[in-house]
Design brief:
Layout lengths: L12 H11 L3 E3 L6 E3 L1 H19 L6 E2 L5 E3 H4 L3 H7 L4 E6 L2 E9 L4 H11 L8 E10 L13 E11 L2 H21 L6 E4 L11 E8 L5 E11 L1 H6 L2 E3 L5 E3 L1 E8 L1 H10 L16 E5 L4 H20 L4 E3 L7 H10 L4 E5 L1 H6 L1 E6 L8 E5 L3 H26 L1 E2 L4 H7 L4 E6 L3 H11 L2 E6 L7 E2 L6 E2 L1 E6 L3
Parallel strand pairs: 3-7, 15-16, 15-17, 20-21
Antiparallel strand pairs: 1-2, 4-6, 5-6, 7-8, 8-14, 9-10, 9-22, 10-11, 11-14, 12-13, 17-18, 18-19, 21-25, 22-25, 23-24
Helix pairs in contact: 2-6
Length: 481
């Protein structure tokens, strides 16, 4: 299918996205509505995301550790925290029959794990010496979404969910912000996606949280995507599940807890931030293949010689820890292979043919610079260093381009009329009085939601963009996925 053109992003961004996910073999639709099958290319991308995050989680001081909790949760657990059940009730999948018999208590298919972890902590935590507990698990969860889209919003999705318990409020708040910073560091340095760190409004926060923080990114069509969240849960779940510890003075205290997560929807962010009309453009640090070698020949004799050279180059690059593949497919023209790998977003293409062998060179083609602009002739000698430097440049170029796009599509409207125009295809940074009523009316009238109150943006006194009343903070508003 690589020879069939994708719809352009300008013509139909949504259809461009849908077809690209399928054609690049990242994922496919499952026989169950709203679910997806993640194919090997997509799963390798997710594995690289996992490794990048897992490394960061385990590098904290003290380190976080991985655990595994059950898929099924007693329904009564979900009902213990009132805000939690109110928030998740419409999305729950509930099992009422098992082994051919009606269950005495229905089981919820895990939408998230705060409740079952809270139940376990109540048994395990006795003293302040047991704290902090810093857990993370890699799993899938189920939320009964009505409108679904591959990677961005599916009934079952893969993610990591972190859960921590602390002796003090200050420790838990520091943990919440630390994990937000880790998500932002990953997004910007590994995925080359600039993000805005911010605090969610009360109406947008996680069900059961005191405070929710998020990283928000702008997609190629100007819409926002919440790309990772970190929640300060206060003592809400501790009191619901009686998670207590004996402090140094011998007094019983309730723990302070957090939770945080980043899911496969981040793959959707990578597609929509970096992709172009030819297909994916994957950041080198996460790409399943950082380089692909395309051998070019006409005769059987040339084929044998070129393939030998290609495999030698592959071995040299692999020895330098570069993820590389030789395209050995028969019956396909070099042009077909070029288009196929462009669509799959491989950062670098290395072309080698008889003439290149004679000169001791190869052709490097950068995916972020289509056409002649991205091509150069380089020496085969020292190729690993040349490729490594090209990959570094591509990584930086992708980030710089995405940041420039966000800046160009973020406006500071002077009035509500300007605001309405700004959110039609970008971000609007405007003062907001904090009223849930203003927030709801903005959403009703413009389809834009309050994405976050940026942590790195000076607020200052001003007037609410909607009601004109005094406002002390500025917020990002945008239409969102």
């Amino acid at each position: 299918m690589a020879d069939q053109k994708l719809p352009t992003r300008q013509e139909d961004f949504a259809e461009w996205y849908n077809q690209l996910v399928l054609r690049a073999e990242l994922a496919d639709y499952a026989p169950v509505r709203g679910c997806m099958i993640v194919r090997p290319y997509g799963w390798t991308l997710w594995e690289n995301i996992q490794q990048a995050l897992d490394r960061r989680f385990k590098s904290t001081d003290p380190p976080h550790v991985n655990v595994a909790f059950p898929l099924f949760i007693p329904k009564s657990f979900i009902e213990k925290e009132k805000h939690h059940v109110e928030g998740f009730a419409p999305e729950l999948a509930v099992v009422t029959i098992g082994g051919g018999e009606k269950l005495t208590e229905p089981l919820v298919v895990r939408p998230t794990s705060e409740t079952i972890i809270g139940h376990s902590w109540a048994k395990w935590i006795q003293s302040y010496r047991d704290l902090p507990l810093l857990y993370n698990q890699w799993n899938s969860v189920v939320r009964w979404e009505m409108r679904t889209k591959l990677f961005l919003r599916t009934m079952e999705f893969f993610w990591q969910e972190g859960h921590t318990a602390h002796a003090t409020r200050a420790e838990a708040e520091a943990e919440t912000r630390q994990m937000l910073d880790i998500y932002a560091d990953f997004a910007e340095n590994d995925a080359a996606i600039p993000v805005i760190k911010g605090r969610k409004s009360d109406s947008e926060k996680f069900a059961g949280a005191d405070t929710t923080y998020a990283i928000e990114a702008i997609m190629g069509d100007g819409k926002a995507l919440q790309s990772g969240t970190s929640h300060f849960l206060g003592q809400n779940f501790s009191k619901a599940f009686e998670i207590q510890y004996l402090d140094p003075q011998g007094q019983q205290q309730f723990c302070w807890t957090t939770s945080w997560g980043l899911s496969t929807r981040f793959i959707g962010a990578i597609i929509m931030v970096h992709g172009d009309d030819q297909g994916l453009i994957l950041p080198p640090r996460l790409a399943p293949f950082q380089a692909v070698i395309v051998p070019i020949w006409k005769t059987d004799e040339e084929r044998a010689q070129v393939m030998e050279a290609a495999r030698k180059l592959r071995a040299e690059l692999a020895a330098a820890q570069i993820r590389v593949k030789v395209d050995e497919r028969d019956g396909m023209t070099p042009g077909f292979k070029f288009n196929d790998w462009e669509m799959r977003g491989v950062p670098l293409r290395i072309e080698v043919g008889p003439k290149d062998m004679a000169k001791g060179t190869v052709v490097l083609a950068r995916r972020d610079r289509p056409g002649k602009e991205g091509k150069s002739f380089v020496q085969q000698a020292g190729l690993p260093d040349t490729v490594a430097e090209a990959l570094r440049q591509i990584q930086q170029a992708l980030f710089d381009r995405a940041l420039a796009f966000r800046k160009a599509n973020t406006r500071r409207p002077k009035d509500y009329a300007e605001f309405r125009g700004a959110v039609e295809g970008g971000f609007a940074l405007a003062h907001w009085c904090g009223s849930a009523d203003c927030e709801a009316k903005i959403k009703e009238e413009t389809k834009a939601t309050m994405r976050c109150i940026p942590l790195d943006e000076a607020g200052g006194a001003g007037k609410c963009i909607y009601c004109g009343q005094a406002a002390a903070e500025q917020a990002i508003f945008a239409r969102a996925y």
